[in-house]
Amino acid sequence: MDKVRTTPNTTADRIRKYLKEGKRFDGRNTEDFRELVIEKGVSCKAEGSVRVKLGKTEVIVGVKMGVSEPYADSPTKGNLMVTAELLPLSSPRFESGPPRFDAIELGRVTDRGLRESGFVDFDKLCIIPGEKVWTVFVDVYSINDDGNLMDAATIGAIAAMKIAKIPKYDKEEGKVLFDELTDEGLPLTDHVPVAISVHKIGNALIVDPTREEEDISECRVTMGSSKGIISSLQKSNSKPLEMDEIKRVFEIATKVSDEINKKIDKALK
Amino acid sequence: MAEKFNRPDGRELTELRETKAKVGVVPNADGSAMFQQGKTIAIAAVYGPKKMHPQHQQDPRTGQLRCEYNMLSFSVSDRIRPGRNRRAMEISEITKWALEPVLMLDKYPGQVVDVHINIIQADAGTRCAGINAAAMALAHAGIPMKEMVSSISIGKLDKTMVVDLTKEEEDYHEGEGPTDIPISMTPSGKVTHMQLDGKIGVKQLQEAVDMAKVACQNILEIQKKALKDFIEGDKK
């Protein structure tokens, strides 16, 4: 579970020194994202898939659909399942084997952001009440980790869900015809829960950290929000935040979230 | 807010559930405590500081904290499969993050403090009850601490902010629905843990942090009283 850190102390000191003057070592402002690139349709077997690049950080996200029985407590609602895998190919730090804590947290935080915001209209994913509903599987894979996989994963999940098409379902045979996609997209609303992670380094609060910045981050708050409405939040790591600091985090994350939401829409056009 | 919001159990908006705390519930442990918030019951036991095993995980610079959160299979209506699941793993780590900042672990290089939390009965707020119990158990074990940690869940039901949600309130589905915000704080006002599920605006979320501060002060008193009662009981 121990995180591997590879940033040399000299680099770390330089980053901290720059941040004291409000500057970042790659020239960005504290609330700037790196360049965001979204590429559509990277895997033809998926119902929707994207490749997301944030600078050198890269993830691939695919949406698959399946038909299953609904949960007993929600007989008319479809399901959503988000998992994340940190592939050993994407960083010398990741190893094969059962998911470690980083991957579990990545999947769960992404899942909560999507679920709680009302982004998906689960009632419309019902095929036969109490018997058959659609399950939406969103799988996130890291391809290159240069920091901030967390935000790249949510951006990818949102983009992939926006372009996904529902396959045909043969009610008599009870079979999904994956080769015949309908024109129908997923039933999504305009509450798009773009999650933004704010990191604390010294007294600075920054977004979209690079690998080096993430290595020396003392505390991360990931917050999913849309138009000022916050739907999920997780504070990670042991460093505590003062009350006024955490209040400032809410404001930074909601502001940046709206900016990124616009960028996603532009990229998908 | 035109009308007054009525909570299902008739509590005031900022009123905690009936809360009980007891220290020394596991005689074998170096420190232990029970924390009950309404129908939610958590027990925590601390073992250590002791030599870290496996040995390769030893850190010669500082001691380490390990937390394990577990729900008993019969603690909820639908039996949960025993053993570690993803939710439990996440809450274990969250608990560690919530407690670590107050511990002076640098006094125990190469060693480890194990905290085991078990939820006996669940009616929402289990991670908060677990953190409250664990903080008391750590104090009971005599681990040097800079201050206490207290934890509470703040909720928003439709448009109304309330303190200490029950399961029934967590499943509230009218208007804007439920928002659950577990927060852990120290007496000096440091936020060591915070999560959120639901829908809430920035202003109200800032208000939630202020409400948590007041609620955590009340919980702190309960924690302190239980620790003092235990020492008094020992003297007799």
Walk me through the structure:
The complex is a heterodimer of chains A (269) and B (236). Chain A has five helices and 13 strands. Chain A has helices at residues 9-20, 101-116, 149-163, 211-216, 243-268; strands at 36-40, 48-54, 57-68, 79-85, 126-128, 132-144, 165-170, 175-185, 194-201, 204-207, 219-226, 229-236, 241-242. In chain A, strands 1, 2, 3, 4, 5 and 6 form a six-stranded mixed sheet that branches. Chain A is elongated and about 65 Å long. Chain A starts with 8 loop residues before the first helix and ends with a helix. By secondary structure, chain B is of the alpha+beta class. Chain B has one domain (19-235): GHMP Kinase, N-terminal domain (Ribosomal Protein S5, domain 2, 2-Layer Sandwich). Helix content of chain B is 28%, strand content 32%. Chain B has four helices and nine strands. In chain B, the strands form two sheets. In chain B, strands 1-2-3-5-4 form a five-stranded mixed sheet. The longest helix of chain B has 34 residues, at 202-235. The radius of gyration of chain B is 18 Å and the shape is globular. Classes of the chains: A alpha+beta (269), B alpha+beta (236). Chain A binds chain B through residues 1-2, 101, 104-105, 107-108, 112, 116-118, 221, 223, 228-243, 246-247, 250-251, 254, and chain B through 57, 86-87, 89-90, 93, 96-97, 100-101, 181, 186, 189-202, 205-206, 209-210, 213.
